[in-house]
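Onboarding guide, step 5: your first structure request.
Type a short instruction followed by the sequence, for example:

Predict the 3D structure of this protein.
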Amino acid sequence: LALREQFVAYHQRRFLGSAAVGLSAHHHVVDLQGSKEGIFLALLAFVKPGETLLLPDPSYSVYQACALQRGVRVEYFPCDASGQPDVRQITATQLRNARLLVLCSPNNPTGVVVTEQTLQRTVRFARQHHLKVVLVRAYVELDFRLPSGASQYLQGSALRLEGAMECVIELHSLCKSCGLAGWRIGFAVGAASMIDSLKGLKANSDF
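The system replies with structure tokens like these:
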């Protein structure tokens, strides 16, 4: 619990600022064996074999690899000219049986940071089409340069957007952000129902 409380405090301080999201260490966060475990558990929890995972092109290859291990279909959708994932280009055929959409910010492999507008559009799209969203933030602390006199508040969390706490979780990795490679520690934070599903899987797997 003490660890989860610190994860909540970090996320609030670095990504939410004064936004009143109401994160609870009991209901909205779970510790992970790195963000990679979170990706695999999300596929176990939210997508059945034969259903569809939506990914922007390009994406980190592990997302597809985990999906294929689960027997999950992968559908790629394009990014715009600036590298922003564009959910408006997801077709009706791709949406058929789609259950989960994964974004990464900064993106692996392009390094593009997902903008506020893109996050808003993605959350609205997810709510409209009954999708769950995983936003991978594993690289968010690696190359952030504060301008002189700037706030320590990092933007980019989707959790303060309308409806996000119903359908979005964000994954963080201390392995990368804190230089703890090999320690296998990270966390997921966000929608209570999604976090509860991840907790259930972990309680019966890596307990």
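Each response can be followed by summary notes, for example: The chain has a mean pLDDT of 91.
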